[in-house]
Amino acid sequence: MAPPRLDEFRYEKLTWEEINDAVAAGKIPIVPCVAVEQHGPHLPLDVDMLLCTSVALGAGQRLPQKILVLPSVSYGYTGHVMDFPGTINIHYSHFIEHVLDITKSLAYHGFKKILLLNGHGSNMPNLDLVSRRCNLETDAQCAFGAWWSLLTIDPEFLKRWRQSEFPGGCAHACELETSVYMHLAPEDVRMDRIRSGKVSFNEEKSRYRWVDLFAAGPFSVTTWTASGRACRRRRERKTTPRSLRSPCPGDRATRCAAGRRTVSWDGSSARTKPATARTWARS
Asked: How far apart are CA 81 and CA 250, in angstroms?
């Protein structure tokens, strides 16, 4: 009989018999939960996938006797940035049920502790619900957290590398994500497109509504898109005749090639006027 392959940390590389060995050894599965979405003009759409999965695999390489890393849940909840072409949105209820089914499968096979490692901010409330339901509906313990939160364990660490302003310098396609991507895959970063940016509502200097990757004000309003320019375009579309409007990314992103066929969540299609990103995301 072959000895257990307890040094293998990649879940998909094990056989079903070796999964039993991993369960018996008390290994903890890590499920990277990410998204395919825009990250500014300088970073590819796979930022969340690359960064989060790399952190999980790095942990597996260091502690192969204790960790199993699953293939990532690659698509997440991104409805608020659907105005940016390339973004793939999964309805929050589908996302929750999908990840919950993964945790229930792991619990069914005997794993007692499960970690959901998040790589996309808007997945967080959904993963909170997944974790709660897994803990209520199985005998496993499920925890969740974001990979960037690990950077706060050592309170002195942020001070040693962060150069951007607080709050707002670390938020999205920011100093942190750009730096880590440059470390992992520098050839894919469009260096000539990197620009400093501002979180528009942070400029209001409100004590109640402000945001940073590592902290936030006591209240938040999640807008349709984080782009102030896109917000202005949407307001323009409401008040300006169509012939005078500037091009809007949402128009280009959501219309099919024929320009008139729309597809609903159940896969059915109909000849009708083009759906906008807003109506599609809310259907």
From this structure: 9
* Neighbour count for residue 152 (Cβ, 10 Å): 11
Question: What was the pLDDT predicted at 1?
Answer: 55
Question: What is the average pLDDT score of the chain?
Answer: 81
The answer to whether the Cα torsion of 69, 118, 85, 177 is positive or negative is: negative
Q: Is 274 exposed, middle or buried (0-12, 13-18, 19+ CB in 10 A)?
A: middle
- As a residue count, the chain comes to 283
How far is it, in rounded angstroms, from Cα 32 to Cα 115? 9
Q: Distance (Å, rounded) from C-alpha 23 to C-alpha 168?
A: 42
The residue ranges of every structural domain in the chain are 11-155
User: Distance between alpha carbon 227 and the CA centroid of its chain, in Å?
Assistant: 17
Domain 11-155 has CATH 3.40.980.10: no
Q: Provide φ and ψ at 160, rounded to 5°.
A: -80, -20
Q: Residue 92 belongs to what H/E stretch?
A: helix 92-108
| Residue 246 near residue 265, CB atoms below 8 Å | no
Q: Estimate the crossing angle of helix 175-184 against helix 47-62, to 10 degrees.
A: 60
Burial environment of residue 246 by CB neighbours within 10 A (0 to 12, 13 to 18, 19 or more): exposed
Q: pLDDT tens across 18-73, in order?
A: 999 999 999 999 999 999 999 999 999 999 999 999 999 999 999 999 999 999 99
Among the listed residues 128, 127, 122, 129, the one whose alpha carbon sits nearest the alpha carbon of residue 82? 122
Give per-residue pLDDT as tens, 194-203. Answer: 888 777 777 7
